[in-house]
Amino acid sequence: MKELFKRIRIAVYLSAVLTIAMGVVLIVWPMEVTGLICRVSGALLTIMGAVYLFGYFVEKKGILSVAGGLLFVLLGVWIFIWPDSVAGLVPIVIGVVLLVHSLKDFQMAAEAKHCGSEGWKVIFLLALLNCAFGVVCIGNSFGLITVAMRLLGFALVYDGVSDMVIVYHTVRAVRDAAMKLEPIDVEAHEIQ
How confident is the model over 49-53, as a mean pLDDT? Predict the structure, then answer.
């Protein structure tokens, strides 16, 4: 059981460090990252469309391959040439990721509460704030991509740090609960 918790903790900590790193990159270079993400997505769509078209010409069947291929190529080229046109979608995608993380965090808060930890309230509040960041990112209420990307960066840094705190408290609560259930090994003495 200890080995399982150790693997989970390492995986979550690694994920949290990567999330923090991505957040810092978004804070420092918001527009460059947005443009890069869009251009890579555009290139991938173009390649996927070309593969569909190539498949049609090799097999000589599947009119949907031609239509889908042309659609992907045109969309990919459009995104690659004009990345700002789809940059507004990036905050929405990251907001969805934050919401999914917050659902996991709420689940961990419930687990910590179930195990009798007093720290579950802190975990719940961290999860609630994470959820709020996700909603703000999806709503993109600032309207400016640079500000929104920096907000996303701060939200990702917060998500990584809060994941580390949440996992620490959850593992501690589960460990404490398990220790309460373990039998104590003592020597027996006959009472006369």
Answer: 85
Report the distance separating Cα 166 and Cα 68, nearest Å.
Answer: 44
CA separation (Å) from 39 to 24, 32, 46, 82, 115?
A: 21, 10, 10, 8, 47
What are the pLDDT digits (tens) for 119-169? 899 989 999 998 988 888 877 655 557 777 788 889 889 988 888 888 888
d(CA 149, CA 89): 11
Across residues 61-83, what is the average pLDDT? 83
* pTM of the full structure: 0.53
The residue among 2, 39, 52, 51 whose CA lies nearest residue 179 is: 2
Where do we find the tokens 């291929």? 69
Tokens of 11: 């995986």
Task: Provide CB contacts within 8 A for 100, sequence distance 6+.
Answer: none
Give the span between the Cα atoms of 44 and 170, in whole angstroms: 39
Query: What SS3 class is residue 135?
Result: helix
Q: Which residues of 125-142 are buried (b: 16+ CB within 10 A; e: fewer)?
A: ebbebbbebbebbbebee
